[in-house]
Amino acid sequence: MGSVFLLDFSIICLLVSPYRAHSALPFPRRLADKKSGGSMIRMVTGGSSVSIDPTRVTQLSWKPRAFLYRGFLSDEECDHLVTLAKDKLEKSMVADNDSGQSIESEVRTSSGMFLKKAQDEIVAVIEARIAAWTFLPMENGESIQILHYEHGQKYEPHFDYFHDKANQEFGGHRVATVLMYLSNIQKGGETVFPNSEAKTSQPKDDDMSDCAKNGYSVKPVKGDALLFFSLHPDATTDTSSLHGSCPVIEGEKWSATKWIHVRSFDKPAKSSATGDCEDKNENCAIWAKTGECEKNPLYMVGSEDVYGYCRKSCNTCS
Question: Which domain holds residue 277?
Answer without folding.
Answer: 271-318
